[in-house]
Amino acid sequence: MKFMNVEQYQFVKKQAKKILNANTTSKDPNVIQAIQALVQEEINNKLILDDIEQQIVLQPIFTIQAREQLELFLDSIKQYVEPFKVPTDNQVKKLFPKDKKVKLPKMDGIDLRELSYLSWFDAGTNRKYIVYYEEGILKGVRGVFDHLEKSGICLVCNHHAKVGLLLVSKKGTQLGTYTRKGNYICENSDTCNEELTDFSRLKAFVDNLS
Fold first, then answer.
1. Hey, what CATH topology would domain 6-80 get?
2. pTM: predicted TM-score of the whole model, two decimal places
């Protein structure tokens, strides 16, 4: 029974790392208990655990004291994560009807339980594509991506990383005119997905470019 989406799984992963960090940097039981209580509160606010079995699945998070235990815990809860549903080529073509040659990247070896959204870069057109689901409906945005070779705050995951500028062109109010909107996002979408624990940020990013 799957009871977490990817965003929630990434959130729990961060909380597990907090527990590990507390146990490796402090010997004060009061400090460790305080971190554990904070993590419990954060999880309760983020996840709706419908039954005791789901609570039991996450309970080992509070016993993590070593990197090996962290990895074992994350592996054990992954079976409860709803994976990203890869769209078909036809679905993507309907999403971007003006891009006749658009096609999905190769998905071999990609863990779909780590993806809140799918993104890829087409070197031939210099375009970056982002597709995701909102209430079961496939949505997306694409634009010219400028590799800046600089670090900054990603507007999607809100973390400091190597970023680039995504520029999206839209028809202007007058015939033959266009407006361009842009913002900074992670160059590496895998890293961005791992840091994304608030999916509303992605939706807000796309809405701002529309």
1. Monooxygenase (1.20.1280)
2. 0.92
